[in-house]
Amino acid sequence: MKILISDKLAEEGVKILKDVKDFQVDCKYGIKPDELKSIIKDYDALIIRSGTTVTADIIAAADKLKFIGRAGVGLDNVDLPAATKKGIVAMNTPAGNTTSTAEHTMSLILSMSRNIPQSHGALKAGKWERNKFMGVELYGKTLGIIGLGRIGSTVAKFARSFGMKILAFDPYISMEVAAKMEIEMAELDQIFRQADYITVHTPKSSETKHLISDKEFAIMKKGVRVVNCARGGIIDEAALARALEKGIVAGCALDVYEQEPPPADLPLLKFENCVVTPHLGASTSEAQVNVAIEIANTIRDALLGKGIVNAANFPTVDAASYKVLGPYINLAERMGKFAGQLVNGRVNEIEIVYSGAITGYKLAPVTMSLVYGLLWPIVGETVNFINALELAKERAIKVQEIISSEEEEFVNLINLKIKTDKETFSLWGTLSGNKQPRIVKVNSVYVEAFPGGYMLFVNNNDRPGIVGAVGTVLAQENINVAGITFGRETPGGMAISVVNVDTEVPERAIEKLRKTKDILFVKLIKV
Prior knowledge:
single chain, 527 residues, alpha/beta, Rossmann fold, seven-stranded parallel β-sheet, six-stranded mixed β-sheet
């Protein structure tokens, strides 16, 4: 079996693969896209880092390719839909850089607190300016952590050793788990108002883009310090510059940027109290070795038939069963992502009831897919089909799978019920006659919605003119409606509309809809 490594990989990882006598390992670092496309047809596995982009064209040419392994967290440089369609499993290493990124976060917190880069530069220039670089202590300060996954929780552990109080926001971490880590769970507003330091550790998504912007800076404690070692764009860079200018933010530290490398005229770069590094979160020799060893072991075991771990696009299931279950795995993922963007509160329990002909199969892959979809809006790229249940367990989320023999309204049905500290949310999903996924009930309201692409989810009073009002606002923004479905509890009662649109709906349009008479709730979701 042939393995191609197209980006520089630590020798420890390469050796693991070369030690298998049945493997031919070719290291062609920095290979150009055209050359990769021309030779990929001969390989069974491809290992990359961030330097190689695996496009749909390359995947189309990969006649033998079974596995793509990314030595790192993200898989944004792999066309996952194309890989899935081709039957290629894409895997990553979600835990390999946890320590290095958490340590870099603490390094930036310390650097901006004690003015280390500025004082270093001054002293190198022959200036002795002790009074100019007066710093602040971490001891006794409140650190707000947004996102309490592996990296966020490791940052919390490090910060506690400095005597910091920890506030954290993460809807998928239970109070019990947080209490064991000596962390106080809080809502975002509380963190913004009370924290002396704020650090973000969430994935980049439509939900988290510009999560911190002018509105959030306006309610922060004067003198707050802000850190981003996660993904560029979670913090609005223009808004951060304005907050620095106004003195709301006393200092910031960035390792990631909305555009990388950032433009030379980026306003933030002119501020002396803005500490910057060039995306070094995972740049330690230990992290490079860790991800190399992890991906080498993962690819080796997968090729030798010893199991698939950390797969981002494929659950473990045999080929015959997958022919039947594949559409339900797809449905379950879409249901999870749909619900994950609508549910309100901290998730405590997930109940999945299966009924119909599918109950004759082992449904673990379907459950994994649903939980993966549910966790994705918050946890992002650190969750995959394989580790979704484990991540739910870490967050003390109870997952219950129930096989029902009762006759339902649909031949095959997935009934999802989510219990949070604020509500119970339910969703029914099934397949249409041509095996396309459908949402058929949201809470108590029947609908017939296709869960795909961009969708506007609208709660409204059942009054004339609502559909027209939605269509008018979308037309004003030149947004095409691909489909619309609606249902209601009773005539004149509460109603639901799900509008499929071809492109993302801007916030200004959503605000218009929220102000429309009889519209109670509007949310843009993407599945």
